Amino acid sequence: MAPPPRRPPEPDSAKPRLNRDLVLTTALRLVDTGGLEALSMRRLGQELQCDPMALYRYAASRAELLDGVTELVLDELVIDADTSDWQEQLRRTAHAVRRLALQHPNAVPLLVTRPLSTPLGMRPLGMLRPLELILTLLIRTGFTPPDALHVYRAYYGFLYGHILNELQETVVNPEEEEPLLRLALYRLPPREFPRLRELAPVLAEYDGAAELDAGLDILLSGLAQKLKIDPADHSR
Question: CA 4 → CA 1, 7, 9, distances in Å?
Fold first, then answer.
């Protein structure tokens, strides 16, 4: 009796089929869990169960891979350049960027400094879209194009500064009730740092969202005055 015909081996259903979105999503996950230093073509290939050389089809270098991860994060931003309430849109965008930074703290250096490594016109389009949309929003509001660019720079300078500040607001002992102990401020010499010790209760109760809104109130009211618009006419 003849042996039954051999069946071809079934493909490994657990092995994912490569595509750009999967590669970048996996790369971002590696950054989230291990930091930027954890991301390499070799490590990414291990995670995707493929030869690292296959990844160069989707990113020609590690630098291009980092650009792709940056774009992936920024793609989550939704900016309505056609809205009539420009202050509300800038406020929403600021809180959205903050949320992304808190979700992906290890990727914050990519958001803040990665674009600086490439001339403006050579940056990936995903990095430029937030700039284009906010410039469009501000120009339609009434800012001149040069002023709109100044506003964008001031806005993002404040926003990234806030995010970096929030990420370094470290509480040493979160379960400790005494603010001086929670922040380890008791280590500071009282005569040299009386103000920091005095502000311990405020520092210990840091609210990133509230601090962001307080800064935005100052920034947006100043911009509204520049346009000779009463800030009260633009509610949150």
Answer: 9, 9, 15
